[in-house]
């Protein structure tokens, strides 16, 4: 799945622009003669397509980018890190990928998740499918993300690189936990705005909660969400967070301008006592291990700036 689910992706407000080069790419692929493979089957897939941002993140940090990705044209808008190579082909939306283009690309393997599983019957007629799901009922996302890194390491023949990345990630979180020590007394409220009257609150169980737990920080929102890790609430419900340290990963300028004219918003303790809340740089809300690391960095950067 792509980063923002359920518009089924409600946060993707602007729809999906069709890349101008897609038709030309497809035409060239269909016009070119296919070369039949000869000899023994490939031991490892080398042409992998992904319908999910988090799985693509994992391939990138393992040094083996996918050749094609659903919603690739919106990577910089919703994910940003790690950078996506410019030559990765866009497959259209994750819930309705361009099957004709995918067939022309002739992938060795297509990566899916539970969220995009409805596309598998069509895809499986043209390529093997591997379903690797991070966001699902039971458990929390970060341990599942670690396991997908290991599984992709096995698929790609990069087991040692996968284990080295995960070991380095453990060291990274340990260092971040030390940075977080001065901020452990104040609960943190993580928001993502849908409109001037409604927000997502990142909650348990979710990747953001996993990150807060790794940092030893408190979540100001004690209610639970569902397995994507958020609850959708009205503005008035945010009063439950009290005088938390609030920050947002998504607050477009028009929403921010409206909020700053709202008596209700201005009366909320975390806004009244602390001023306008910081808006974090782009970070994948429903990403993999690289997204968890980026969340940790951005949260700590915001806290340190406020304390300076």
Strand-helix topology:
Layout: H1 22-31, E1 48-50, H2 53-61, E2 68-69, H3 75-78, E3 89-90, H4 99-105, E4 109-112, H5 120-123, E5 129-131, H6 141-156, H7 159-180, E6 188-195, E7 198-202, H8 207-215, E8 230-234, E9 245-250, H9 253-259, H10 263-267, H11 269-272, H12 289-307
Parallel strand pairs: 1-2, 1-4, 2-3, 4-5, 6-9
Antiparallel strand pairs: 6-7, 7-8
Helix pairs in contact: 1-4, 2-6, 6-7, 7-12, 8-12
Overview of this structure, please?
This protein has 308 residues and is of the alpha/beta class. The protein has two domains: 22-32 and 41-169, Rossmann fold, CATH 3.40.50; 183-307, Rossmann fold (3-Layer(aba) Sandwich), CATH 3.40.50. The chain has twelve helices and nine strands. It has a five-stranded parallel β-sheet, with helices on one face. Strands 8-7-6-9 form a four-stranded mixed β-sheet. Strand 2 (68-69), helix 3 and strand 3 (89-90) form a beta-alpha-beta unit. Helix 6 (141-156) runs antiparallel to helix 7, helix 7 packs parallel to helix 12 and helix 8 crosses helix 12. The longest helix has 22 residues, at 159-180. The relative contact order is 0.14. Mean pLDDT is 88; it is low at 1-42.
Largest sheet: 5 strands, parallel
Mean pLDDT: 88
Full CATH superfamily name of the largest domain = Nitrogenase molybdenum iron protein domain
- The name CATH uses for the topology of the largest domain is Rossmann fold
CATH class of the largest domain: Alpha Beta
Order of helices and strands: HEHEHEHEHEHHEEHEEHHHH
Report how far the terminal alpha carbons are from each other: 38 Å
Residue stretches low in confidence (pLDDT < 50, at least 5 long) are 1-42
Number of helices: 12
| Overall number of structural domains | 2
What is the structural class? alpha/beta
The CATH level-2 architecture of the largest domain is identified as: 3-Layer(aba) Sandwich
Strand order of the largest sheet: 3-2-1-4-5
In total, the number of strands is 9
Overall form: globular
Keywords: Ion transport, Iron, Iron transport, Signal, Transport
InterPro entries: ABC_transptr_periplasmic_BD (IPR002491), Bact_iron-sidero_bind (IPR051313)
Protein name: ABC transporter substrate-binding protein
Domain Fe/B12 periplasmic-binding: 47-308
């Amino acid at each position: 799945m792509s980063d923002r689910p359920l518009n089924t992706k409600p946060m993707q407000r602007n729809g999906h622009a069709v890349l101008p080069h897609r038709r030309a790419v497809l035409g060239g692929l269909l016009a070119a003669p296919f070369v039949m493979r000869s000899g023994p089957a490939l031991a490892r897939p080398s042409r992998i397509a992904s319908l999910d941002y988090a799985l693509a993140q994992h391939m990138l940090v393992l040094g083996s980018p996918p050749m094609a990705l659903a919603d690739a044209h919106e990577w910089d808008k919703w994910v940003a890190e790690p950078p996506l190579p410019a030559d990765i082909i866009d497959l259209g939306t994750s819930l309705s990928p361009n099957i004709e283009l995918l067939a022309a690309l002739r992938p060795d393997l297509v990566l899916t998740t539970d969220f995009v599983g409805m596309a598998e019957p069509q895809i499986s007629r043209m390529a093997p499918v591997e379903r690797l799901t991070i966001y699902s009922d039971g458990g929390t996302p970060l341990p599942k993300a670690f396991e997908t890194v290991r599984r992709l390491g096995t698929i790609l023949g990069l087991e040692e690189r996968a284990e080295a990345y995960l070991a380095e990630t453990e060291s990274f979180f340990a260092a971040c936990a030390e940075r977080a020590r001065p901020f452990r007394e104040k609960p943190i409220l993580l928001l993502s705005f849908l409109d001037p009257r409604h927000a997502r609150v990142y909650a348990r169980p979710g990747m953001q909660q996993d990150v807060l737990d790794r940092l030893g920080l408190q979540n100001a929102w004690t209610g639970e969400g569902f397995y994507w890790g958020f609850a959708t609430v009205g503005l008035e419900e945010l009063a439950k967070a009290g005088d938390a340290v609030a920050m947002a990963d998504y607050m477009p300028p028009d929403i921010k301008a409206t909020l700053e004219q709202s008596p209700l918003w201005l009366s909320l303790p975390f806004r009244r006592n602390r001023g306008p809340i910081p808006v974090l740089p782009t970070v994948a809300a429903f990403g993999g291990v690289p997204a968890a690391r980026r969340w940790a960095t951005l949260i700590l950067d915001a806290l340190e700036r406020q304390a300076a």
